[in-house]
């Protein structure tokens, strides 16, 4: 991070932070992040924990065990509690709730991601992949993020809401604008302009969902809003505001995050044809390989508040501090995963923390895994020889709690699909 960036984005150091633990680490745009976001904390492995003044100040852990402990200890480190503001202005359910309220809602929502519902979604996800590939394959090149990685989860979300296909492109754009478009505005026009841009995007998303809720109150169907309209929690129906909170969270959490996961995986395979060929030769290896790709490419850095004075990772944290739990930092810890930078499709990577752990473990993880699996199967079967263009590389962009590929150009032999 340059001096000018540090001046505009950082804050004063609290008195209880040892000077030797202060590091200028920018989790969104720092040089370590832009080199390869999931492995950004590798540059700081000499420290078990450090403090960055960026973004108002955070403690950052670099060890799997400490990150896991922080994720699981919701009493000491509540998920976006009262200190850290919610950038959407809405209490997203159940993400921003902690037990016991969290458990009440989560029990209701678990049914939405049952094996039966996922099985019903898989043909729709494959159909979307086929449609995108039919357009991409004859061209011999694509910008993978906008042409495939983001449209797939955006289309899936539209299906979940029961919206027609003509809504897919609009939802895809809203998904990108929400986090990364707003971050671009913030960097180029300032913080207030970025917040205003994001507020308008949130209003558009919530307006669409609110209209669907009203329609489902009149006539239900086989979609998530209908499920929520008919659901009960502790003997009472959910309110419109509760349904809007849940449905908008699913959009915020499930579109660009899943698209990013797909893009990271395909970017790796574009650079490593040997690994790609193994998936082509043996598609049955894809589920295990996908879990390893999920481990290697964990890219979230979630904020949690410190609810009371507590010691962790050998340092004393004070009430009102904030911590940054970096999934990539945990997944690249050599104490948890030997040779963590090596992608080993035979590795048992099931203990990775990409989807979190504890009470806030991602509810949509099974759906995200399914979409990645379908993407790997369909893209590799249709376009087996993709690669990065000569002289081009992946560009990254940070926004909120994640950093994703901004541009992922691919070239390949043109072919028509059947």
From TrEMBL:
It comes from the Bacteria. GO terms for molecular function: heme binding; iron ion binding; monooxygenase activity; oxidoreductase activity, acting on paired donors, with incorporation or reduction of molecular oxygen. Keywords: Heme, Iron, Metal-binding, Monooxygenase, Oxidoreductase. The keyword Metal-binding applies. InterPro entries: Cyt_P450 (IPR001128), Cyt_P450_B (IPR002397), Cyt_P450_CS (IPR017972), Cyt_P450_sf (IPR036396). SUPFAM superfamilies: Cytochrome P450. Pfam families: p450. PANTHER family: P450, PUTATIVE (EUROFUNG)-RELATED. Belongs to the cytochrome P450 family. This is Cytochrome P450. It comes from Amycolatopsis bartoniae.
């Amino acid at each position: 991070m340059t001096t000018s960036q540090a001046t505009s984005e950082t804050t004063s150091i609290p008195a209880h932070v040892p000077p030797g633990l202060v590091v200028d680490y920018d989790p969104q745009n720092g040089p370590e992040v832009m080199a390869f976001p999931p492995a950004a904390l590798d540059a700081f492995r000499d420290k078990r924990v450090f403090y960055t003044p960026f973004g108002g100040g955070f403690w950052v852990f670099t060890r799997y065990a400490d990150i896991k402990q922080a994720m699981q200890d919701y009493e000491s480190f509540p998920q976006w509690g009262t200190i850290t503001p919610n950038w959407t202005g809405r209490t997203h359910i159940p993400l921003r709730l902690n037990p016991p309220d969290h458990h009440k809602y989560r029990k209701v929502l678990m049914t939405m991601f049952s094996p039966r519902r996922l099985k019903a979604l898989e043909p729709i996800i494959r159909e979307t992949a086929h449609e995108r590939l039919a357009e991409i394959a004859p061209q011999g090149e694509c910008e993978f993020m906008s042409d495939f990685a983001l449209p797939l989860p955006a289309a899936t979300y539209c299906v979940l809401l029961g919206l027609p296909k003509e809504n897919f492109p609009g939802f895809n754009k809203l998904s990108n604008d929400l986090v990364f478009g707003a971050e671009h505005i913030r960097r180029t026009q300032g913080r207030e302009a970025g917040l205003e841009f994001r507020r308008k995007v949130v209003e558009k998303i919530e307006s669409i969902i609110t209209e669907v809720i009203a329609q489902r109150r009149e006539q239900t169907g086989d979609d998530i809003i209908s499920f929520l309209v008919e659901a009960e929690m502790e003997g009472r129906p959910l309110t419109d505001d509760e349904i809007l909170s849940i449905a908008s969270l699913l959009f915020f959490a499930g579109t660009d995050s899943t698209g990013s996961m797909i893009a990271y995986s395909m970017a790796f395979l574009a650079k490593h044809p040997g690994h790609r060929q193994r998936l082509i030769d043996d598609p049955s290896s894809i589920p295990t390989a996908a879990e390893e790709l999920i481990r290697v490419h964990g890219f979230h850095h979630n904020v949690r508040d410190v609810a009371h004075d507590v010691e962790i990772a050998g340092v004393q944290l004070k009430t009102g501090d904030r911590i940054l739990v970096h999934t990539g930092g945990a997944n690249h810890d050599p104490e948890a995963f030997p040779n963590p930078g090596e992608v080993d499709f035979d590795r048992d990577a099931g203990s990775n923390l990409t989807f979190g752990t504890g009470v806030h473990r991602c509810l949509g993880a099974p759906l995200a895994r399914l979409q990645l699996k379908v993407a790997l199967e369909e893209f590799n079967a249709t376009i087996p020889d993709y690669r990065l263009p000569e002289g081009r590389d992946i560009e990254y962009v940070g926004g909120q709690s994640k950093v994703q590929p901004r541009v992922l150009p691919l070239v390949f032999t043109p072919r028509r699909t059947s």
